[in-house]
């Protein structure tokens, strides 16, 4: 990338803000240290944006919105086409930086960028989604048509675990709908969003349409309270999602808040054992288990599956974490020390609660990287619902196994869980799959697919405590979230003479 902001960050040692179409150095005195999760080497300092910087960003976004809303949608999407091409061209460079700051394997980092590019591609079809509805003669000589309008300045707050995909769930669609957008990415991996922003500017979008502000709770609360921010998209942990939803809606904003999870895979005795084992390894430990759609509970149904735990254990014992660039690594380190220490504590407490700890990754060591945030593959058998390992989202490479006798019992277990992000069933029986898909109270269901993340023309439909709001991320629901509808009733009488005042609400 020419004039790369990443080069600038490496030489200056600080991450810039992006305000009013320019990358700027923050005037803050408050900085957050960003370090490499495999080594603890300091990568850069991340600014905690000042109130003045936040205020300027919102004001600039408001000005940009006023012009952008009148740009025809077909012209708006031409910028998106250019953006999509630039993202594809630089996918590898973005993935390399993403991998460095998150610790993800390069292949996984490429996937993170790619799933975001797909959302931009979906946004390129916005002309059709921005079409309203029309009916002639709703009453005699009266026609009704509706228009889809952008709502104004929108904001997005994103988590650390998908620093490319999740920002790309938000601003490309919001902007394609005619809005301006303020992004507050995770302070734990701000380099990837900086690259996405640089390419956004290179795509030629008018200045001010996208602003990027770094920080933490204070910056989020500023956006939640600012009267000129009309809608807030949030993705992150459950307590923060609840806070964002309550504070944002209390301020009469539209809010969609995607939150944490505990995802179950139901394993029926007629399933293909090899497929099940492989799917469980990838979906529990991929990205070090730091995915909101990770499978963290395997529910083995029936006596015949009881000893499948041996195969799961053998397959998990066969993988190991490693630093980016290590081709033999299945996944990377946890994002930071605090996260690693929390997962270690959960693992160490599991046996005392009665779990059968088949694999204990708490003391994992990776040669050459003594300071990495490593957790080895971890397997708990005979887990019950009262244990901490079941109740909390571990967000590490750890799998719980629960044994039940019947599919009905499995459904009851899943439905009693407060979260509803994702679930899957592995079976050869259409009847069992159909029953599970129908009766499970979870928003995204995979049938012989471990991680059922919908493509961007659908929406990301987590439910229960995994989602607060009405309209979900991306797909048609995102278009409804980032727009409002105006309905026009019109009459063009052939004579000027009205037939007397209408004193009712009926149309005549
Ligand atoms: P997090 O909640 O700690 O942080 C998310 C964002 O909120 C960050 O930008 C952070 O700066 C900000 N933030 C943190 N504390 C805050 C506070 N007290 N008040 C206001 N803002 C605050 O989440 P994380 O650790 O970055 O991400 C992991 C979590 O995100 C997991 O729980 C995971 O399941 C969830 N997640 C959910 C989805 C989904 O679509 N449902 C997708 C990805 C991640």
Chain-wise SSE layout:
Blueprint: H1 5-12, E1 17-19, E2 22-24, E3 31-35, E4 42-47, H2 51-68, H3 73-89, H4 91-102, H5 106-123, H6 126-129, E5 134-139, E6 142-150, E7 153-157, H7 165-176, E8 180-184, H8 191-202, E9 210-212, H9 217-225, E10 229-235, H10 238-250, E11 254-258, E12 263-267, H11 273-285, E13 295-301, H12 308-317, H13 337-350, E14 356-359, E15 378-381, H14 388-391, E16 398-404, H15 407-416, E17 419-420, E18 423-426, H16 430-439, E19 445-447, E20 463-464, E21 467-468, H17 475-481, E22 483-491
Parallel strand pairs: 7-8, 7-10, 8-9, 10-11, 12-13, 12-18, 13-16, 15-16, 18-19
Antiparallel strand pairs: 1-2, 3-4, 5-6, 6-22, 11-21, 14-15, 17-20
Bound molecules: nicotinamide-adenine-dinucleotide (NAD).
Nicotinamide-adenine-dinucleotide binds near residues 216, 235, 240, 261 and 393.
Termini Cα gap: 63 Å
Name of the CATH class of the largest domain: Alpha Beta
Q: Report the biggest beta sheet as strand number plus sense, adding barrel if it closes.
A: 7 strands, mixed
Radius of gyration: 25 Å
Number of helices: 17
Which architecture of the largest domain per CATH? 3-Layer(aba) Sandwich
Helix proportion: 25-40%
- Mean of all residue-level pLDDT scores: 97
Ranges where pLDDT stays below 50 over 5 or more residues in a row are none
Q: Count the strands?
A: 22
Strand content: 15-25%
Named once each, the bound ligands are: nicotinamide-adenine-dinucleotide
- CATH topology assignment of the largest domain: Aldehyde Dehydrogenase, Chain A, domain 1
User: What is the CATH homology-level superfamily of the largest domain?
Assistant: Aldehyde Dehydrogenase, Chain A, domain 1
Counting helices, strands and paired strands, the structural category is alpha/beta
Order the strands across the largest sheet as they lie in space.
14-15-16-13-12-18-19
Count of separate structural domains: 2
The rough form would be described as: globular
């Amino acid at each position: 990338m020419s004039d790369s902001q990443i080069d600038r960050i490496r030489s200056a040692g600080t991450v810039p803000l992006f305000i009013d179409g320019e990358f700027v150095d923050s005037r803050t005195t408050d900085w957050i240290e960003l370090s490499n999760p495999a080594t603890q080497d300091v990568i850069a300092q991340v600014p905690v944006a000042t109130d003045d910087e936040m205020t300027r960003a919102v004001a600039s976004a408001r000005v940009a919105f006023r012009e952008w809303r009148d740009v025809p949608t077909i012209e708006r999407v031409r910028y998106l086409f250019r953006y999509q091409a630039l993202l594809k061209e630089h996918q590898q460079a973005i993935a390399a930086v993403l991998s460095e700051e998150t610790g993800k394997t390069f292949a996984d980092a490429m996937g993170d960028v790619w799933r975001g590019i797909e959302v931009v591609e979906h946004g390129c079809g916005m002309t059709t989604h921005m079409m309203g509805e029309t009916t002639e003669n709703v009453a005699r000589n009266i026609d009704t048509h509706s228009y889809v309008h952008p709502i104004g300045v929108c904001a997005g707050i994103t988590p650390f675990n998908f620093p490319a995909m999740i920002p790309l769930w938000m601003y490309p669609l919001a902007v394609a709908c005619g809005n301006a957008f303020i992004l507050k990415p995770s302070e734990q991996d701000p380099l990837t969003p900086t690259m996405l922003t640089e390419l956004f500017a290179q795509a030629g979008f008018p200045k001010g349409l996208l602003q990027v502000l770094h920080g933490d709770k204070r910056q989020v609360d500023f956006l939640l309270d600012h009267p000129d921010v009309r809608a807030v998209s949030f993705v992150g942990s459950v307590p923060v999602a609840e806070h964002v939803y309550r504070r944002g809606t209390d301020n009469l904003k539209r809010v969609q808040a995607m939150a944490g999870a505990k995802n179950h895979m139901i394993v029926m005795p007629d399933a293909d054992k090899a497929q099940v084992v492989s799917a469980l390894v990838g979906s529990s430990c991929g990205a070090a288990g730091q995915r909101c759609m990770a499978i963290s509970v395997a529910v083995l149904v029936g006596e015949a599956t009881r000893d499948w735990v041996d195969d799961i254990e053998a397959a998990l014992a066969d993988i190991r974490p490693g630093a980016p660039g290590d081709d033999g690594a299945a996944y990377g380190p946890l994002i930071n020390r605090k996260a690693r220490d929390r997962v270690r504590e959960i693992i160490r407490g599991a046996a005392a609660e009665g779990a059968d700890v088949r694999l204990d990754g708490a003391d994992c060591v990776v040669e050459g990287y003594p300071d990495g945030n490593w957790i080895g593959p971890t397997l708990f058998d005979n887990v019950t619902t009262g244990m901490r390992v079941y109740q909390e989202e571990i967000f590490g490479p750890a799998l719980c196994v629960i044994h039940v006798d019947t599919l009905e019992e499995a459904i009851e277990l899943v439905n009693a869980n407060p979260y509803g992000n994702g679930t899957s069933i592995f079976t050869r029986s259409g009847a069992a799959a159909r029953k599970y898909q129908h009766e499970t109270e979870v928003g995204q269901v995979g049938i012989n697919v471990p991680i059922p993340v919908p493509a961007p023309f659908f929406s990301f439909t987590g439910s229960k405590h995994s989602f607060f709001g009405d309209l979900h991320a991306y797909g048609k629901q995102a278009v409804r979230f980032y727009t409002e509808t105006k309905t026009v009733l019109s009459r063009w009488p052939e004579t000027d003479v009205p037939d007397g005042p209408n004193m009712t609400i009926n149309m005549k």
